[in-house]
Amino acid sequence: MAAVRVLADHPEVDARLAEFGVTRRALLEVVRGVVAARADAIADDPASAEGQLAYIYGTRYVRQLFRAIGWVNYRENNVESVKHPDSPLKVVYQSVDLAADKLHKPQAVSGKGSGADRIIAVGQTGLFPEEEMSAARDQGLAELRTGVWFFCVSVQGDDVRAELSLPSGISGGNFEGFIERIFILDGGEWPADTILDSDRPDGIEFEPAVLRR
Asked: What is the pTM of this model?
């Protein structure tokens, strides 16, 4: 199997993201929205509240970002994503244990339980048709036309990380490996306020994570 391609230098990352039509700064806004949504959980909520809020708002913000450039909401096998209007290219939000670490491949947090393991194994496997994965390998990803990418975000206290990555497949209800990983937010780069201006990038205005209880 070919070695995973990892892009971590910001100029290289920016150039690669331009093929998606988005910027690193815009994706950092998504991360900031996810962190804010998680922080809305309180002690009286279910134990899974932080994770549920991260998934709901992460999916919402990813969709808002890509729909602003013409992508469309997509749903397959109960997996929520946003899809390029003219190709099979899709992006899914995913909370993971640890993102943007060259020595660790991200693992979906929701894949750790037996029930979630079955859901991911059944639901996400359908997103990886062999012809799509073969095409991606054969092209060496020189042309961005297909594949199911995951915007992976990990939050461990003040250690917040993110990457946009293309898995090679699913095994045991979780990511088996990756073809390409684009590091958006590395260790030690949080908080995003040190990176972002007060203005929203690219004209994207996300809805605030305000919940009615």
From this structure: 0.80
